[in-house]
Amino acid sequence: MIVWINGAFGVGKSTVVRHLTDLMPGSSVFDPEEIGAWLRRLLPTERLRGVTDYQDLPQWRRMTALTLAETHGEEATGEYCTDGACDAAPRAGDAGDGGAAQQDALADAARCGADCRYDMGGDGRADRVLAGAALGAEGGTATHAPGALATVTAVGAGAARGTTTTATGGRAAVRSPRGGTPPPRTVLVPMTLLRQEYRDEIFGNLAARGLTVHHIVLDAEETIIRQRIRGDRIDTEALNHRLAHLSAYREALPWLAKDAHLVDTAGLTPGQVARRVWDAVRAGPGRCTIVHTPRPTAATIASGVLFFDEEGRVLLVDPTYKAGWEFPGGMAEPGEPPAQAALREVREELGLRLTGPLRPLAVHWEGRSAAGPGGVRLLFDGGVLSPGQIARIRLPEDELRGWRFVHEAEAAALLPPVRLRRLTAALECRRSGATGPAYVEERV
What we know:
About 40% of the residues lie in helices and about 20% in strands.
């Protein structure tokens, strides 16, 4: 499982996590801030222009989820590569020398073949590999970084083949997809995460991989947090950055209180806070109930339905498992007609039973991207809902957290650009009275 320790800068997340490792034997700590530091070094200047927070980088959110997914089963003792050449790697790494023996063992591991490749840091090659991973390059190769307090996972085709490595304090843990898989472990993540859409993207990505996330927020009076921040030995720029984020934490607290389990740290030592966190993890109040939808590996067909109220506003829903708002609907099952998929999804997501037939408004082709393999997306006209139908709307809590009717201008602030283009085409088709649906094709 993943235990995400959230809260304002200065509330004591990292200290509490250190105590948690004593309460949770076999757990490991992953700090996504390390990925942010790597990305600032490795991404092209044009991709960083205007970025003041590394969490705003899609690469950071994608790599954080992928790294957590890979780390979840990486470091546990047990089987690794079973071809024989890798057998020395875990033993040398466990010896704790972090030096020549470990690198020799990893070099031996590299001879296992194309599916078990490793690069040694220190000669610049690691930077190039990580840059390729951050950009979602084909054939991303994992990198060993002796002594680094970080975990880095190749993103792209390499990651899909399992070419990963974990480096924690100089201990190498290697795994080949052809060998046995170590058992899953608990990963502790001390990280401030105040944008709900980023939470949805990362946690939804983890849920799609079958991982359970416990979301815990450490809370404290703002005056106490300010005192702690001013007492830290950090430079002026970092001090001002942390103080400025206190207002963002206050603004995020309403949704955090609904989504996570809050632990009041007032008057408690870090050890006592850790105990309360551990009790909460065992009892389960912070467990995120997100629908586990496997990530598609090939192009898919998805159907959505546009519903309207008497003012002409369109109905949008807010998923818990991905960023941005959506249209009611979802993926078609194998062999299921798109219109039937739309009717089924509306019944499952809104509790509304439509008899059909549904008029198609838009056919939208999405090409493969870092977000997924793409496919055909259809929007159907569900018509105007009566007040009685609106009153009967019921949402599945593990999938959708809310719904609302919006004007087209309001939708522009809620929908990602690709969905907004789909909505615009569908609304134009509906207004024009065209006999056929609008066709939209994303450029790849």
